[in-house]
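Project standup — Tuesday

K.O.: blocked on the structure for the chain from last sprint. Re-posting the sequence here as requested.
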Amino acid sequence: MACPVQFLCRGLRNVGLVLLYYSFSIGITFYNKWLMRGFHYPLFMTLVHLTIIFCLSSLTRRAMQCWTGKSRVILSWSDYLIKVAPTALATALDIGLSNWSLLFITISLYTMTKSTAVLFILFFSLLFKLEEPNPFLIVVVLLISSGLFMFTYESTQFNLEGFVMVLLASFIGGIRWTLTQLLMQKAELGLQNPIDAMYHLQPLMFVGLFPLFLFNEGLSLSTSEKLFRVTELSPLLYSLFTLSIGGSLAFGLGFSEFLLVSRTSSLTLSISGIFKEVCTLLLASALMGDKMSLLNWLGFTVCLCGISLHVGLKTYYSKNKVPTLRQLNSRSPELELPLLQQNRDNAEDSAADGYSDEDEEQEITLH
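H.V.: unblocked you, prediction finished:
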């Protein structure tokens, strides 16, 4: 039996990992919202983020290869274009639309609407038989849907265009995470490590999002004095610097989620995600001036009850049966990629409880 000092050290480590995850996840949401107050090119910003994530994941793969002495997986062109492309396209649209919606809506409405992604994840999980149906899922759907309705009803800061964008992003996010789960369950591809998955996804995501960027922002950006028509060097360097910070935060979010799940469990990430939503809304009200009525807060509470019920059901069923299907994580924040690596440090503790946490995705909630 572990001594009290070991329990204390493990508890402090877990708290530190949760705080690290909160810092990147909440930080990138507020940072992107702040940046787009003066930089109205969310799709270009997303393309820059994808480029930075690809470069950092490449460096990380190189470091891992030098550390372990084992070469990293490289997919063939046929597997890359046929099996990875659908996931990359869905991921690019999810992230691009999410960032785009921040031009029009508040952080509180964004956070609330993105929380409904669990509905679409459930739908596509059932469609692709990644999750087994049960009657309690009807209650989950009703709670989340009614919570969203109460949150948006007579909201003083409601914007239909932004709301439709983020709701569409949530719908595509359901497709995204389902396809990503299927992709990473294919052991022959060797993409179980999130760093390898990020490395392979970013180029196709860039290619998939680039036509939408050209159509919507290409002409205006080419004539913008912030980038291509600068008269002085300092504004250009400032724009590139601020965009680079966002890309680094996006990569840090994915890496912090990877550490949190691999060192604790997927359940810890799910529960942490619920409290993260509360922290985000409180900070949005205090720092950004988001106005929320009593009905809005009640709707948010009802929605969180539905998400909490879903997490509880997943935990209950994982305890009482041997998992045969890797189920999707109910929390998909702003980020990112599935994580199918379990915590080796806690393997003995999980076995003593009679079950092991299911393989779970890591979300790089690139918001």
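K.O.: great, moving the ticket to review. Residues 41 and 217 are 7 Å apart (CA to CA). Residues 322-367 have pLDDT under 50 and may be disordered.
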